[in-house]
């Protein structure tokens, strides 16, 4: 964030987190995280949240101090900051966390991806922390190279994967022992470099698939289990202005969709609107574009997470939107917005939703019912419809004459070949 924009966010922040506007997600707790500050990405693990935070720049520099605030959520009504992890000044932080169980490491793992801001140096890195004891985070390892996003997943075989994106491509690493990250493969952008502002790469929760969304609208599918297989894609976006992108993967019955948010990232970007792209993802095939989702008015979609058939989207000035993809037509089923909202981050606990507002801090919300991750009836029905066509037509031809006969008035003559109603047979017996 540029210094002027950073200052403007602080000035617009207003009072500490206030009661929600008339929306339908219940606010359980809130914290201003010890402002002043500008708050960004959020991740959760166990009963702990971690929030990327920028503090006012030190004297003589325009680059804000950067930290990761560790927040105890054991009592969700009263979130409490218990630690602060200092990060490189002038960097943007992207976060992910995962509860890991394995032979080399068992506990709560935090990954922090750092990318330098313009005019604030070069480089960047990904750092891994042991967060099992939240008041005392412990650095395990660092890997060089700027990264715009980081995503963690543990496979069924116990292997822990990390995928990071950068302007030139994507790296996949084995972090089963997070103190010794081991590179697995590198995917290089076919165009040499992302033509947008910042792309994203997201692992499916079971580590079986990766979706890569570039800031210029291209979307690819990668197979982390078969790194030698070429990337499938791209699905091309609508073009136009460059974007900052974020992505989530939602398994819906017998198919998987990628939900990709696109928000403008240049000085000429028109505020408001924005859209969610929806793509069908199949291993080995280019992602297939479906009808996008957009809303009029202020706000654009930013960071998002998926669970079941729901996508939880930080929609800036429009607050948090919860979109259900389990029906024929995706629809917003829940929403939350504080007064003067700028919701920029979202993460999920078993019973709560945690969101961050750039100027106000952190909110804890009651989590809506999700239906256990199953696709809705109509979504499953439409998926099966092509296979049901012939049986349905055959059944109709077999049943219609019987239905017509039963609808005939008593004593009406029967046409030749028409079946005799069962009641008539009983009368003749």
What does this structure look like?
This protein is mainly β. It folds into 2 domains: 3-375, Methylamine Dehydrogenase, Chain H, CATH 2.130.10; 382-408 and 415-428, no CATH class. 11% of the residues lie in helices and 43% in strands. It contains 3 helices and 29 strands. Strands 18, 19, 20, 21 and 22 form a 5-stranded antiparallel β-sheet that branches. A 4-stranded antiparallel β-sheet has the order 1-29-28-27, with no helix packed on it. The longest helix has 31 residues, at 377-407. Mean pLDDT is 83; it is low at 10-23, 372-387 and 414-429.
Structural class: mainly beta
- Supply the CATH class of the largest domain: Mainly Beta
CATH architecture type of the largest domain: 7 Propeller
**Share of helical residues:** 10-25%
Shape category:
globular
Given the structure, what is the number of helices?
A: 3
| Main beta sheet strand tally, sense and closure | 5 strands, antiparallel
Question: Nearest-angstrom radius of gyration?
Answer: 26 Å
How many strands appear in the DSSP assignment?
Answer: 29
> Oligomer, anyone?
single chain
- How much β-strand is present in the residues? 35-45%
Give the low-confidence spans. Answer: 10-23, 372-387, 414-429
Q: How many discrete structural domains?
A: 2
Average pLDDT figure: 83
């Amino acid at each position: 964030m540029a210094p002027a924009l950073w200052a403007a966010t602080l000035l617009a922040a207003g009072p500490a987190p206030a009661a929600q506007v008339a929306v339908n997600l219940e606010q359980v707790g809130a914290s201003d995280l010890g402002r002043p500050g500008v708050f960004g990405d959020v991740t959760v693990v166990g009963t702990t949240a971690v929030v990327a935070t920028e503090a006012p720049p030190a004297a003589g520099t325009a680059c804000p101090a950067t930290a990761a605030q560790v927040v105890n959520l054991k009592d969700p009504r009263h979130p409490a900051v218990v630690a602060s992890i200092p990060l490189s000044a002038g960097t943007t932080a992207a976060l992910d966390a995962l509860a890991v169980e394995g032979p080399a490491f068992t506990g709560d793992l935090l990954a922090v991806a750092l990318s330098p801001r313009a005019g604030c140096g070069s480089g960047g890195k990904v750092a891994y922390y042991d967060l099992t004891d939240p008041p005392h985070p412990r650095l395990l390892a660092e890997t060089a190279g700027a990264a715009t996003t980081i995503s963690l997943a543990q496979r069924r075989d116990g292997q822990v994967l990390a995928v990071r994106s950068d302007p030139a491509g994507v790296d996949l690493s084995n972090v089963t022992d997070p103190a010794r990250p081991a590179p697995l493969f590198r995917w290089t952008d076919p165009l040499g470099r992302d033509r947008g502002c910042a792309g994203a790469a997201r692992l499916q929760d079971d580590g079986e698939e990766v979706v890569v969304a570039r800031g210029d609208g291209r979307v690819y599918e990668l197979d982390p289990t078969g790194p030698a297989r070429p990337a499938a894609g791209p699905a091309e976006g609508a073009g136009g202005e460059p974007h900052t992108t974020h992505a989530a993967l939602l398994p819906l019955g017998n198919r998987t969709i990628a939900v990709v948010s696109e928000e403008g990232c240049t000085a000429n970007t028109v505020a408001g609107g924005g859209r969610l792209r929806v793509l069908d993802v199949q291993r080995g095939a280019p992602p297939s574009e479906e009808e996008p989702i957009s809303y009029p008015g202020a706000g654009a979609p930013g960071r998002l997470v998926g669970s079941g058939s729901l996508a939880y989207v930080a929609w800036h000035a429009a607050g948090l939107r919860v979109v259900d993809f389990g029906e024929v037509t995706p629809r917003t089923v829940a929403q939350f917005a504080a007064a003067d909202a700028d919701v920029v981050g979202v993460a999920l606990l078993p019973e709560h939703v945690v969101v961050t507002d750039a100027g106000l801090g952190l909110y804890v919300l009651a989590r809506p019912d999700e239906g256990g991750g199953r696709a809705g009836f109509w979504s499953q029905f439409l998926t099966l419809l092509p296979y049901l066509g012939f049986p349905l037509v055959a059944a109709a031809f077999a049943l219609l004459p019987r239905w017509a006969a039963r609808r005939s008035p008593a004593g009406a003559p029967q046409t030749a070949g028409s079946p005799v109603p069962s009641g008539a047979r009983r009368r003749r017996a």
